Amino acid sequence: MIVYGIPNCNTVKKSLDWLKANHIDFEFHDFKKKGITAEKLNDWCNTFGWETVLNRKGLTWKKLTKEEQSKIDNQDLAIEYLINNTSAIKRPIVEKNGEAILMGFDDDKYQQTLI
């Protein structure tokens, strides 16, 4: 299992703490250090929807002008933006056996999906 995110994100921290507390082995992929591929983003967008993968609540997105935000109106443009602005990816994303199964952190969903 791989958990994708950035280490200073509170939601990622909650996820990692939950996994450790439940003795679930995982590998952590830090977007900031390792980056992310367009192929991986495309997979996640196809699973969760590009509008969900693009975190519009975060500071990275809010720093854009309304005009810049309005130009990101499809999956291809969202992926192009996210490759260069990994902090704008909704996180964490959890993959098991190469398939994205969870996004964000919800105790109940983690419990249902991973235990």
UniProtKB/TrEMBL annotation:
<protein>
    <submittedName>
        <fullName>Spx/MgsR family RNA polymerase-binding regulatory protein</fullName>
    </submittedName>
</protein>
<dbReference type="InterPro" id="IPR036249">
    <property type="entry name" value="Thioredoxin-like_sf"/>
</dbReference>
<dbReference type="Pfam" id="PF03960">
    <property type="entry name" value="ArsC"/>
</dbReference>
<dbReference type="InterPro" id="IPR006504">
    <property type="entry name" value="Tscrpt_reg_Spx/MgsR"/>
</dbReference>
<dbReference type="InterPro" id="IPR006660">
    <property type="entry name" value="Arsenate_reductase-like"/>
</dbReference>
<comment type="similarity">
    <text>Belongs to the ArsC family.</text>
</comment>
